[in-house]
Amino acid sequence: MVVVGYIVTFAFIAVQERTPTTAELFWGILFGVVYTLLGLYNRLIFDWIPPGWADLLFFSVQLALVFGIGQVLGVVGNLLVGLPLVAFAVERLKPWPRLLVYVGLTAAVVAPIGLRFSPWSEALVNGLTAMTAILFVAAFADMRRKEQQTRERAERLAAELEEANAQLAAYATQAEELAMTQERNRLAREIHDNLGHYLTIVNVQIEAARVVMESDPDRALDAMDKAQELTQKGLARVRESVAALRESPVSNRPLDEAIASLVQEAQSSGIVAEFTVIGEPVALEHKVALALYRAAQEGLTNVCKHARASRVDVLLAYQAIEVRLEVRDNGVGAAQTNGGFGLLGIRERMQLLGGKLELDTGVGKGFRLTASVPLSQMDWPPQPEE
After folding, report:
1. Which domain holds residue 301?
2. Tell me: the pLDDT tens digits for 305-352?
């Protein structure tokens, strides 16, 4: 647009009554070349100056060149040379500095006409024409600037949306992997708690039958019958686990009844087992009741499998601030309380509910397992129930 305006300005020279001198043509061409170069490469030329001062210097020099072109060539077409400054002002300046450029450009166009031609009334008429053209170009440039900003904003939002979608996809993948991990851990706990419990008691019954098989065949047969019965129960539990564990052992009965059945199964292995309930039973959330049931199951399984105990006591206490389960035996105990996968699973269950698991043992002192869940934590953030 700068070059086009400059060419049109020189076209006005051809129709003027007065032909410019050689010196005027030289200065006009020089001013035009400088004006064009500044218009095309202004950012590169003024890059070393701070932005605010660079804009001031650029517009001041360009307005002076527009005035100079009109003064030395004596044409009224120098307005076209100056119109690109309007677009520059719209793009780079705020409203008030922009208005000063409009006024300055009008003066740079009108002044040469008034100085070279009389009267000034003609200059004022041309000034009104120039101002109209300037406002028209300003409005058009402002529309283009807003359109450009809207397009850039849309592109930026599209890029941000694409990035957000990528992050959501990554989060969805992580959530899926986490859910799969939690489900695997849940199934591992259930299979261990169910199958491990029954296999341990079956193993005890088979060993007992083997010991008394020659001396007391009837007792051995009774032990084998119990082992078979427990095997069938264990198989049924495994089938339930494979069927996604649709029904838990505490779904249709109170927690104390479910634990009482575990104690009864432990008694069938030849251990003296006592179950005591303290306090008034309260309705527990399914996930809380299931966690305490699994703790009792793991404790009794470990007694039958490792403790070499003759007695085990199970206590379920409903207290004001918590529900506590305790499994204590009189077995050989252990030097350390490090548990296997089963105890790790119970500890995870307790932590998910805001509760805790405590283990106390010593060589020759038996083993005590204590699991507790605070009543105030029953509404702990939702976790997998099984």
Report:
1. 253-386
2. 877 888 999 999 999 899 999 999 998 888 776 666 778 888 888 998
230 burial class (0-12, 13-18, 19+ CB within 10 angstroms)? buried
Q: Which of 50, 82, 117 is the C-terminal boundary of a domain?
A: 117
Q: Per the domain annotation, does 143 fall within a domain?
A: no
| Amino acid of residue 291 | A
Nearest to 349, CA basis, from 385, 378, 376, 324 = 385
In angstroms, the CA 318 to CA 85 distance is: 85
Average confidence score pLDDT of the chain: 75
Nearest CA to 91 among 78, 77, 101, 80? 101
Q: What is the pLDDT of residues 193-238, one digit of tens each?
A: 766 777 777 777 787 778 877 788 778 788 787 877 777 777 776 6
DSSP letter (8 states) at residue 270: T
Of 297, 278, 284, 233, the residue nearest 255 (C-alpha): 284
SS3 content of the chain, % helix, strand, coil (to 5): 70, 10, 20
pTM beyond 0.85, yes or no: no
- Residue 262 — φ and ψ, nearest 5°? -65, -40
CA distances from 104 to 61, 79, 98, 112, 127 (A): 11, 12, 10, 13, 11
Tally of domains in the chain = 2
**What does the block give as tokens for 383?**
């976790």
